[in-house]
Write a structure and sequence with these properties.
The complex is a heterodimer of chains A (193) and B (885). Chain A is α+β, with helices and mostly antiparallel strands and 193 residues long. Chain A contains 7 helices and 7 strands; from the N terminus they run H-H-E-E-H-E-E-E-H-H-H-E-E-H. Chain A folds into 2 domains: 35 residues, no CATH class; 138 residues, Beta-Lactamase, CATH 3.30.450. Classes of the chains: A alpha+beta (193), B mainly alpha (885). Chain B: It is a peripheral membrane protein.
């Protein structure tokens, strides 16, 4: 019930240290904004970013979760349940974007598996919608026709793939070959052992 | 060893062409991880999950403690711990082992160790310090895979204070021969920039080198840094415009290697990133904007393929075109593009079109005009999200002329979506906003309740309203504002019959009677209450009630109210001199009783004795307002009282009052024979839709306004009327005037998904008039400490005050200081910090801090306080103060 408020607190807690230091340095340096872009950054209300990525099945069970903004571990399950409920209640002919609290959800369904991405208001929904598909294409390429079980049995590898695509809530790589390169190198090493 | 790895990496492209079998099936289902996964898939309840995970955590704990556990096993254990944490169960005892695995494991194990660390820990965790040495070692490793993973973890999280320890090594990697290492080094530096910008200030020149890197991946990575830098300080990076334009042109022109394509579109996400950067560079800068017109046009032209990703690019392109200095030719094309989006049968594109429109109408509200009919269709769309987006769009074009209709649409949306919540929210609005509210709000609310066909849903809404009001009246009513009491009376009078028969039919009547007796009830409210009682009496529930006394009374009242002569006979006018008591009084006086004193005299005596006034405070409602809410033609006729009283209604309501009921032109709801059919009166209901000036329907209207969607369907009259009232004022007014109420309702809509609604309501509808700030004198240092300790905050842009001889920031803060008694703690550059404290009200004695920053033409204000109501309340007063200046 209180999620939105406590969630905000978490986010603020994440920002606050930056702000605190920013202000101190601002004061000791005797002014001059250029000394503390972090303060500026923290105050910029429109940070375009991905907040989380979830893979959830139709029964609402989380198969993978990756957060780019700190959310307390105890609060994650209720957030995830809530998010899935939002997406499951949507009809096929309705749009793939949902307003959720103070951000938006972009979801895409693959068989029984939903991939849901939480994004900030300023992010481009359709580009994220396609990013999800790009991600699935990468998984398909790696697992040759990926299934829910592949993801479950290779949770670590799927995470490694995601780490190549998204960092700090930003899209850092979309080239499929390059996304898979580090993981394939690891596999090669493991085989050699 | 290093040779092997070098080979592995360089041989990757050829490896990829093989159908990789590296994936599934390697794990034997009999392993511990396999068992856990099997257990998880078989779960049927939360309870089972808890048992399974608790058991798993015990087993993991045991295993990690054992000295015999190998690193290989530890890798599997970490994946199991990741599972437990993913399901919401803390496995903090395993964190240290994750770090150990990253330190001591072989390559694959090390990667899982790093992965577990990045999933388990957050950026401020002290555990991260233990990782610094490992990272440093791996960065210097000859094994490229290890360097790669160290850079990956660094760009995800790293302790801010330890950056200097690894910075030189990371910088060195910027010149590494392998693109992947250079790319990851740039991303690591981006992370450093995010968490400690001062640390990387000296290497800005190296960022430029990365931007010019021959590898597109490295260049792309550097754009993250530049987007951030340019966003913060566009002036310093104007010289990059040319490079950005060139890069975009090359990407759009298909100059990148083919594997950067996504569904034959060249590097779409890179294009979007570049368009965002161009938007920041060209904003409010004609010279810079001119440099990018060509490439923007080319982007628009190239993105013609029918695929989602091209639409995503188009959307970004349109946004950029409307952000940079305008060029009419481009704007036309962008508007056309938005039109295609809005008209698209694909729902996702329609959504995007509405979003784009919402963005552009902030610059030019007239852009919504060609799409009026589509917007109106979207208002009735079956998809709530589309509807909501449309409302946001309407909210942006709200002006003084169409505010009523738009608010009504917003309320309608709320009603449809959240019946119960709606009533509760409106209760809070009425009880807190009370008598300071615009009269339109209760009017709209009542109309909402009354409108619509008499279907189950409508009835439920009404019934819920009735029930909630009955329980409200059963409690303390003294604090309820008069307006709210009037609304309550009307609803009870009109819809009490919906209540279950078995509930005591007299209860509502008794509650109303109690209201009538209370001294704080204003005369106007009394007339509403009486009206409600009259309706109740004539209702079959009472006149046909099984309770004979009630039935008798109801019938009597009904007959008496209809027959003046009879009434005069049965209830003769009182003898005001009470002469028939003279004998009794003289007897009593003779027996020594105190002589009678008039209430006025008694009051004076009391004042002399105690100096306490027992009179209620004067009404805050101006008389003109109170009477006009009934007679004003624009208010819904449903506010009217029963017309069954016809001629002698004034007598019944009250004789002494200045506010008498005027019933001409009022809909007859109740007739002699009971409730009049609704259809009978539907035609005469004057709706504001018709009354509002509608320039769009007039023959002189410009051609763009009469444009219709290409669908060719003749839109019906109703929709056009709606359009004319929604878009009124757009053609003539360029400045969009935002009225406070729509923004409030909008906030409601924005927050209505939140689970805890009562908090939202509390936060939004604080008792405004109670705010009395006094300056709070603190030092800058104390301010900083307080700032960090406060948990409730709010951000908003306010308008700046401009004077001739002062900086806008100083002028604005001075204005606020003068009007609201705030203490300006410090002003540094374009930022200022302000503090105040409240004398009265809910947050008595509590401080509220403001951080103000000049941002373009407005003042970005961030308020913080330990009390949730304070920031919003203060913000409202700031807004008011600045508008008045």
């Amino acid at each position: 019930m209180f999620w939105i408020y406590s969630q905000r607190k978490d986010m603020l807690a994440a920002i606050s240290p930056i702000l605190g230091v920013g202000y101190e340095s601002l004061l000791t340096a005797g002014g001059g904004r250029e000394n503390c872009p972090a303060l500026h950054d923290a105050l910029d209300f429109e940070i375009t970013m991905i907040k989380f990525l979830l893979m959830v099945n139709k029964q609402g069970q989380t198969r993978l979760s990756k957060y780019y903004e700190q959310v307390d571990i105890e609060k994650r399950p209720s957030l995830e349940t809530d998010v899935v409920k939002r997406c499951l209640s949507r009809k096929k002919e309705e749009c793939s974007f949902v307003e959720y609290k103070d951000f938006r959800l972009v979801y895409r369904q693959y068989a029984a598996l939903f991939i849901v991405v939480g994004i900030s208001d300023t992010e481009n929904e359709l580009s994220i919608y396609e990013l999800v598909h790009n991600f699935v294409e990468v998984l398909d390429k790696y697992f040759s026709r990926v299934s829910e079980l592949d993801i479950m049995f290779n949770l670590d590898k799927v995470h490694i793939i995601i780490d190549e695509i998204i960092q700090n809530g930003h899209i850092v790589e979309t080239n499929k070959n390059r996304i898979l390169a580090p993981l394939l190198a690891l596999d090669k090493m493991a085989e050699a052992h | 060893m290093s040779d092997v790895v070098e080979k592995t990496l360089s041989a990757l492209p050829s490896l990829l062409s093989l159908d990789s079998q590296a994936g599934a099936g390697k794990l034997s289902p009999s392993s511990k991880l396999g068992n856990l996964i099997k257990g998880i898939t078989e779960l049927t309840s939360k309870h089972e999950e808890e048992r399974l995970i608790k058991k798993e955590l015990e087993s993991i704990k045991e295993q990690v403690a054992s000295p015999n556990t190998t690193m290989r096993q530890m890798k599997e254990i970490m994946v199991r711990a990741i599972y437990c944490e993913m399901l919401g169960y803390q496995a903090s005892f395993s964190y240290i082992h994750a770090i150990k695995l990253a330190q001591q494991g072989s390559v694959l194990e090390k990667r899982v160790g790093y992965l577990a660390v990045s999933l388990f820990l957050n950026e401020t965790d002290e555990f991260l310090l233990l990782l610094v040495n490992t990272v440093l070692k791996d960065l210097q490793s000859t094994n490229l895979i290890e360097v790669c993973m160290a850079l990956t973890v660094v760009s995800q999280m790293f302790p801010k204070d330890m950056i200097p320890a690894i910075l030189p090594v990371v910088e060195e990697k910027l010149t590494h021969p392998k693109e992947i290492i250079r790319r990851k080094a740039v991303l690591a530096l981006y992370k450093f920039y995010l968490i400690a910008p001062n640390q990387v200030q000296h290497i800005h020149s190296k960022f430029r080198k990365a931007l010019c890197d021959k590898d597109p991946g490295v260049m792309t990575a550097s754009l993250h840094i530049y987007l951030q830098l340019i966003k913060e300080n566009p002036e310093s990076y104007k010289d990059l415009t040319g490079s950005m334009v060139t890069i975009l042109r090359q990407v759009v022109g298909g100059k990148l290697p083919l594997d950067f394509n996504y569904h034959s579109v060249p590097a779409p996400w890179l294009q979007i990133q570049l368009l965002r950067i161009l938007a920041y560079l060209g904003k409010e800068d004609q010279g810079t904007s001119e440099m990018m017109y060509d490439v923007l046009e080319e982007s628009l032209r190239r993105a013609e393929m029918n695929h989602n990703i091209t639409y995503a690019i188009l959307f970004e392109c349109v946004k950029t075109i409307y952000t940079v200095h305008p060029k009419s030719q481009l704007l036309e094309k962008a508007a056309e593009c938005i039109g295609n989006f809005v008209l698209s049968p694909k729902i996702n594109l329609k959504y995007l079109g509405l979003k784009a429109l919402t963005y552009v109408v902030q610059q030019d509200a007239n852009l919504a005009l060609p799409h009026q009919m589509t917007i109106i269709e979207c208002l009735d769309h079956s998809d709530v999200i589309i509807k909501r987006e449309t409302l946001e769009l309407l909210f942006r074009i709200t002006n003084a002329q169409n505010v009523t209709v738009i608010v009504e649409k917003m309320l309608e949306f709320l009603r449809l979506t959240y019946n119960v919540w709606f009533i509760q929210t409106m209760n809070s609005v009425f009880s807190l906003g009370g008598d300071v509210m615009q009269p339109d709000i209760p009017n709209n609310f009542l109309r909402l309740l009354a409108e619509g066909v008499d279907n189950v849903e409508d009835r439920q809404l009404r019934l819920f309203a009735v029930d909630s009001y009955v329980s409200l009246l059963q409690g303390e009513t003294a604090k309820l504002p008069q307006r709210f009491l009037q609304v309550i009376s009307w609803v009870l009078g009109e819809y009490s019959y919906l209540r279950e028969e078995e509930s005591d039919p007299g209860s509502v009547m008794r509650l109303l009677a109690r209201l009538l007796d209370q001294r704080h009830t204003s005369t106007e409210t009394r007339s509403w209450v009486l009206g409600a009682m009259t309706k109740l009496c004539s209702s079959p529930v009472y006149s046909g009630s099984l309770n004979t006394v009630l039935r008798q009374k109801a019938q009597e009242l009904m007959i008496l109210s209809q027959d003046t002569k009879l009434r005069a006979r049965v209830l003769p006018a009182e003898d005001s001199s009470l002469s028939f008591l003279d004998g009794y009084v003289s007897e009593a006086l003779a027996a020594g009783a105190a002589p009678y004193k008039s209430p006025h005299q008694r009051q004076e005596d009391l004042v002399q004795e105690k100096a306490l006034s027992l009179e209620p405070y004067g009404l805050s409602l101006p008389v003109s307002l109170s009477s006009c809410s009934i007679t004003d033609r624009r208010s819904p006729t449903l506010l009217s009282m029963s017309s069954g009283l016809s001629g002698n209604s004034t007598e019944l309501s009250h004789q002494e009052g200045s506010t008498t009921l005027k019933l001409e032109g009022v809909k007859r709801v109740w007739g002699k024979d009971g409730y009049l059919a609704q259809q009978q009166s539907a035609g005469e209901t004057p709706t504001p839709l018709v009354e509002l000036p509608s320039p769009l329907l007039s023959p002189q209207s410009p051609p763009s306004q009469t444009q219709k969607p290409s669908s060719g369907l003749e839109p019906d009259q109703e929709k056009r009327q709606l359009a004319s009232s929604l878009f009124v004022g757009l053609g003539s007014h360029n400045s969009v005037c935002l009225v406070r109420f729509p923004s409030t309702v909008w906030l409601f809509i924005k927050h209505c998904q939140s689970a805890n609604q009562s908090n939202v309501v509390k936060a939004l509808f604080k008792p405004l008039p109670l705010l009395l700030p006094v300056p709070l004198t603190v030092s800058t240092g104390d301010y900083g400490k307080m700032w960090l300790s406060f948990s409730h905050d709010l951000k908003q842009n306010l308008q700046l005050v401009t004077t001739e001889h002062q900086e806008p920031l100083t002028a604005t803060l001075d204005a606020l200081k003068g009007k609201l008694h705030l203490h300006v703690v410090d002003i540094i550059g374009s930022e200022g910090i302000v503090a105040c404290r409240l004398l009265q009200g809910p947050g008595q004695g509590q401080p509220c801090l403001l951080h103000c920053r000049v941002h373009a033409d407005s003042l970005a204000v961030w308020l913080r306080s330990p009390v949730p109501e304070l920031p919003d309340s203060l913000l409202y007063h700031c807004q008011k103060a600045l508008t008045e200046t």
